[in-house]
Predict the structure.
Amino acid sequence: MARPLFLFLPGAFGSMGSDIREGVAAALPGTELTFHEFVPSGMLAQEIRDGAPADLSVSANTRFMNELHDAGFVPKPAYLAGNRLCIIVNPDHAERITALADLTDPDVTLVTPQSQTDPCGQYVVQLFERAGLTTTMDAKRNAGTLMHSRGSGDLPGYLLDGRAQAGIFYHSETIALGNRVVTIELPTELDLRDQIQFTIGAVRRNGSLHPHAQQVVDWFLGPDGQQLLARHGFLPARALP
């Protein structure tokens, strides 16, 4: 019997572990899954480069996956899914914060993922550039009213415990939050759906692939995996420029 398959998935997958486990068990009986902590893609990629025992990895961008491919860890990366950004608001502040422009108020405390290792934070930086808000948000950061979470996975906690009034992260992650937050849609030209691209690949461990790794990758890329991602708010993958 093959050892458990060790999955390295980013924070956007944090609420999906049970559904992934059930879906793979139904399609590939006998395939046991183990999940690494759901942390930013850059952290996962660095751990893999440092020798962590990964068998399958997902990155929320193409950059970190391409780096793993170039270093020989992921022989066959593939596009997995898209996503989009949105604003979430603590319900106590829902009347005051209804659009992107309201986040520029000096009295509004905002949280976004850090951009060093989290692609979501990098996409938010692009959002601010597109909206012409880079200087304004730099000023908020200097004033202490723009904070950064470790990743998208721990970002909602800033709203739920009152540290922040609003946040920006992946729309897919709002589904698990339900009515604990108010979701504000961004205009299509600003929600970065044209740039956000999750990628997937089986990872070589000690020079070889887990015997079931590519099968699980294919399950994610096939109809059952894609339907699961769609139910959790992901968008279809597409080739990017």
The longest strand covers residues 78-82. Residues 119-130 form the longest helix (12 residues). The chain has a mean pLDDT of 96.
